[in-house]
Amino acid sequence: MHRVALATLSLLAPEPDPEELVSVVIPCFKQAHFLPEAIESVLAQEHSDVEVIVVDDGSPDNVEPVASRYPGVRCLRQENGGLAAARNAGLAEAKGEFLLFLDADDRLLPEAIGLGLEQLRGDAAAMMAAGTWKLIGEEGEPLSADPPQQPREAYPALLESCFISTPAAVLYRRALFEEIGGFDPSVSASADYDLYLRTAAAHPVRLHPHPVAEYRRHGANMTRDPELIMGAELAVLERQAARVADDEELREALDRGLARSRSYHGARLELLRRREAA
Q: Are residues 173 and 38 part of one domain?
């Protein structure tokens, strides 16, 4: 168990209406230099009934002083437990009926939360809504002109690949976490993918084509361990085997997803080993 301490950085913010409140959880580890952009992108939302919870995951780079610049932002401190544990810590403190998880190096577009709420309000059975995203570089420069296309159905597409590149593109109902739990730390490298699959297997997912986030590509997130990622991704996919056993189309989608993961991450791993041996 990781001890979590809550630092209340402002006592002046009024109590929000939890039925309209959206809780945005921002885990941060060694990314305090990006954190202001993430926080400011939440505070600039067109839907203003938002709370921001920053989770300092045992980071050595002074996360709390950065978060404390923003009145009303709360900061949790915990021993380093990984991304899934940090998200769960924020989830446990969140007060809103809707939740969004924003990585500290990414940014929301101003209409992000409003678009997600519109989707969820249009379908009472849906537990998550996912938009698209734009790719940016380390300094925030645009790297892609057009957002990716969304598939027609979430679950079959997710069995083939994790087409949602950033968790910032997804808005959830709180009721989902009360039903299926939070992020699984045992597959922390693919815990978001695991949550998407568990959600889409049990509930409708609203997919819309509008960009809602900016996903930042930089040195730290481009050099993640491909062997670790592949292992977590395969474990997450294999959990779906029993669920799709009686559906030929879904079984075939899962088989394609397993093959794709082995091929893609295996190729990255081989390239890395060659570079290390050179």
A: yes
The boundaries of the domain holding residue 98 are 4-223
- Helix count and strand count (H, E) for the chain: 11, 9
Q: Are residues 166 and 235 in the same domain?
A: no
pLDDT (0 to 100) of residue 18: 54
**pLDDT value at position 241?**
98
Mean pLDDT value of segment 89-96? 98
Output DSSP code: residue 252: H
Closest to 43 measured CA to CA, from 110, 121, 138? 110
Residue at which a domain ends, from 176, 199, 223: 223
148 and 210 in a single domain? The answer is yes
Q: Are residues 78 and 175 in the same domain?
A: yes
**pLDDT tens-digit profile of 175-200?**
999 999 999 999 989 999 999 999 99
More confident: 269 or 26: 26
Same domain, 215 and 249: no
Q: Tell me: do 190 and 258 sit in the same domain.
A: no
CA separation, residue 259 to residues 62, 158, 161, 253, 266 (Å):
41, 14, 10, 10, 10
Q: Where do the DSSP E strands lie in the chain?
A: 4-8, 22-28, 50-57, 74-78, 98-101, 107-108, 128-136, 170-173, 205-216
Judge whether 197 and 236 are in contact, CB under 8 Å: yes
pLDDT of 269 above 90: no
pLDDT number for residue 98: 98
CATH of the domain at 85: 3.90.550.10
Say what the pTM is: 0.90
* Alpha-carbon dihedral angle through residues 45, 198, 19, 214, given to the nearest 10 degrees: 0
* Identity at 133, one-letter amino acid code: W
Q: How far from chain centre, in Å, is Cα 231?
A: 19
From residue 249, give the alpha-carbon distance in Å to each of 86, 160, 202, 235, 242: 36, 11, 17, 20, 14
